[in-house]
Design goal:
The chain has 156 residues and is an alpha+beta fold. The protein has a domain of 89 residues: 2-Layer Sandwich (S16 Ribosomal Protein, Chain: A), CATH 3.30.1320. It is 28% helix and 21% strand. The chain has a five-stranded mixed beta sheet. Helix 1 crosses helix 3. The protein is elongated, with a radius of gyration of 28 Å. About 9% of the residues have low confidence.
Length: 156
């Protein structure tokens, strides 16, 4: 059975509120659920989100796939981070020798963030102004429309 974490609509007409539920993916939106793990009320300011993180982590660790909206709600509630840290904190080989060997290895150096070197406006050596136009193509002025190529079957 493919389990999904998704929203089930409740509330009156034009006043929606939602339950975050674990449900078989083949069931309809408001059909029978396996478990209710939280609520979401988007009409309050700020939105009210109440999720049982331990139950959400349980379902995620058993292979449940969250919908796009529920994955955002899980990130806000902290359940997603809990699930991610749970997977990385348990070593694959839990023997004492493997745990000690893993802890004695130095951690890899962090990679530097990507920094884009953008030229200052008005710089004389900017790549836009120094670009050369090939000899076989006519130079186009900025803002000038490109010449239309004739459509097949159209007279020139």
């Amino acid at each position: 059975m493919a389990v999904r974490l998704r929203l089930k609509r409740t509330g009156k007409k034009k006043q929606p509120s939602y339950r975050v539920v674990a449900v078989d993916s083949r069931k309809p939106r408001d059909g029978r659920v396996l478990e209710i793990i939280g609520t979401y009320d988007p009409r309050q300011e700020p939105s009210a989100i109440s999720i049982a993180n331990e139950r959400a982590v349980h379902w995620l660790s058993h292979g449940a796939q969250p919908s796009d909206t529920v994955s955002k709600l899980l990130t806000i509630s902290g359940a997603w981070d809990e699930f991610r840290s749970q997977g990385s904190s348990e070593p694959a080989d839990s023997s004492p020798e493997a745990v000690q060997a893993a802890s004695s290895e130095p951690a890899p150096a962090p990679t530097p963030d990507l920094v884009l070197d953008t030229p200052e406006p008005g710089a004389d050596d900017s790549p836009e102004t120094s670009a050369e136009v090939p000899a076989d193509e006519p130079a186009l002025l900025d803002g000038a429309p490109e010449p239309k190529s004739p459509e097949p079957g159209e007279a020139q």
